[in-house]
């Protein structure tokens, strides 16, 4: 376990303390091959979480997906925070739309979904601080409707419109205001995120409930927490997700 972790941190050049240059004892080609192997191999993050421990406009996790031309989306994740300010929970940008599919917590009691830069707000779902939440959002191009689920409780279905999602860049921890960039520390996420899955179809309410209850559910076919390819940039830790003591 420790070894794997050690290896992981080596994968992420940005985790190196600033100012310490890696010593190039190893032939460059070998180093390069190691780095690309790190980036390309999916990891099973079951029982783990990403910890975002401080406010920055840089720390983030980039999730690799080859999905293209999506006509529907479901994203589910679990999060834990004490932020009452704005923060991004899931930021997907496309070349034409920085808020291609964005789950965003506003500073009042609302959770917003953006698709293709259009926004709808869902009120009164009860987003408490300092507890784990299961958050799922769905949308499909045919109806243009989006829906938010918090801990199995659903919002109304609201109209967003939008068009098919192509060439997505998916980022946790920061909110994209351009394709892959322009982050704002005041919209960054501080806390923990786990169990991120994304499907290219709309999950049924029963499937969402299975996710919430962590029962047998079909893992995401676009992003799968049990086989995730990602890059960590800045201070984001992969930690064991400890269950609370009963
Ligand atoms: C992302 O996935 C593609 C194809 O699946 C691969 O070629 C690329 O190297 C991956 N990038 C990262 C950063 O993992
Ligand atoms: C996306 O998929 C639809 C339906 O299969 C197809 O008509 C369209 O040409 C595709 N667009 C691109 C850019 O591949
Ligand atoms: Ca944005």
From TrEMBL:
PANTHER family: C-REACTIVE PROTEIN, C-REACTIVE PROTEIN-RELATED. GO terms for molecular function: metal ion binding. Transmembrane segments: none annotated. Its cofactor is Ca(2+). Homopentamer. Pentaxin (or pentraxin) have a discoid arrangement of 5 non-covalently bound subunits. InterPro entries: ConA-like_dom_sf (IPR013320), Pentraxin_domain (IPR051005), PTX_dom (IPR001759). Keywords: Calcium, Disulfide bond, Metal-binding, Secreted, Signal. The keyword Heme does not apply. Pfam families: Pentaxin (PF00354). Residues 1-40 form the signal peptide. It is found in: Secreted. This is Pentraxin family member. Its main location: secreted. Residues 46-244 form the Pentraxin (PTX) domain. Belongs to the pentraxin family. The lineage of its organism: Eukaryota, Metazoa, Chordata, Craniata, Vertebrata. PROSITE patterns: PTX_2 (PS51828). Binds 2 calcium ions per subunit. One of its GO terms (cellular component) is extracellular region. SUPFAM superfamilies: Concanavalin A-like lectins/glucanases. The keyword Secreted applies.
């Amino acid at each position: 376990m420790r070894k794997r972790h050690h290896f992981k941190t080596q994968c992420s050049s940005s985790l190196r303390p600033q100012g310490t240059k890696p010593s190039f004892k190893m032939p460059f080609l070998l180093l390069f091959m190691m780095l690309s192997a790190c980036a390309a191999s999916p990891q099973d993050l079951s029982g783990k979480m990403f910890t975002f421990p401080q406010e920055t406009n840089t720390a983030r996790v980039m999730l690799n997906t080859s999905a293209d031309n999506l006509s529907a989306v479901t994203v589910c994740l679990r999060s834990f925070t004490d932020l009452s300010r704005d923060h991004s929970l899931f930021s997907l940008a496309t070349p034409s739309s920085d808020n291609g599919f964005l789950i965003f917590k506003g500073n009042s009691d609302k959770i917003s979904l953006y698709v293709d830069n259009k926004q709808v707000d869902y009120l009164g779902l009860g987003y408490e601080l300092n507890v784990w939440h299961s958050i799922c959002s769905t949308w499909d191009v045919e109806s243009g409707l989006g829906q938010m689920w918090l801990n199995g409780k659903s919002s109304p279905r609201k109209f967003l419109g939008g068009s098919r999602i192509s060439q997505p860049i998916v980022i946790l921890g920061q909110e994209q205001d351009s394709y892959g960039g322009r982050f704002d520390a005041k919209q960054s996420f501080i806390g923990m995120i786990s169990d991120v899955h994304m499907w290219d179809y709309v999950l049924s309410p029963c499937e969402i409930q299975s996710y919430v209850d962590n029962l047998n559910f079909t893992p995401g076919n676009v992003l799968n927490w049990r086989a995730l390819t990602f890059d960590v940039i800045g201070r984001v830790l992969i930690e064991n997700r400890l269950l609370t003591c009963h």
